[in-house]
Amino acid sequence: xxxxxxxxxxxxxxxxxxxxxxxxxxxxxxxxRGFDFVVIDREHAETTIRDAGDCVRAVxxxxxxxxxxxxxxxxxxxxxxxxxxxxxxxxxxxxxxxADEARMVAEACxxxxxxxxxxxxxxxxxxxxxxxxxxxxxxxVAVIVQxxxxxxxxxxxEIADVEGIDALFVGPADLSASLGCFGEWEHxxxxxxxxxxxxxxxxxxxxxxxxxxxxDDVPEKLDWGVDFLAAGTDTGYLAADADRHLRAYxxxxx
Length: 254
Description:
Radius of gyration: 18 Å
Order of helices and strands: HEHEHEHEHHEHHEHHEHEH
Number of helices: 12
Strand content: 15-25%
Largest sheet: 8 strands, parallel, barrel
Number of strands: 8
Strand order of the largest sheet: 1-2-3-4-5-6-7-8
């Protein structure tokens, strides 16, 4: 079992980062800062499967304890298989609306007889050297599903109860849009949804996390009652520090 999955089961307060720049230099530079995990985004970024493999390796070799999570572009079983064969410690599935979809995700990430994950000698099994061990265990990766719609909120307890789902992750932008209050984090409908998600996850003894885009968002998102957080994105860090240096230059010239 991976350290990430163990941490979820122990409800450890994890903090990670989000990677949208599909380059190992960015992945390694972020991973060595002290984060617990780095999410390599293949849904909304231009990250190819080859890019994802390079970034998984970069996170693993970086100084520190960060582990790589791959967010797949959709819930097709082949996407999970390919991400896990790279050696990712966990996968993040977008737009999971009900328990049936969550069950399909969990099964796609487990070998028979627990699931339908295809078997191959890949990097995850040291190119076949540990394949027998890996297939026998079959539960070594963390499976996280995103709650991003009104339907998912209505079904959150059933989703969290699905065997093999290790954590839930709130997608704030998509969820607020689904509720008709895009970006309005204090809107009654949105806050009621957050409360329902957190309550449902905790009732099933499953941790729940979310994404904080900016520094000011971190305490706000933690106030939602989440157990773990992706604190910022690579492009956000880049832009914020560029602004800070530009202001320092302009102030020094005055």
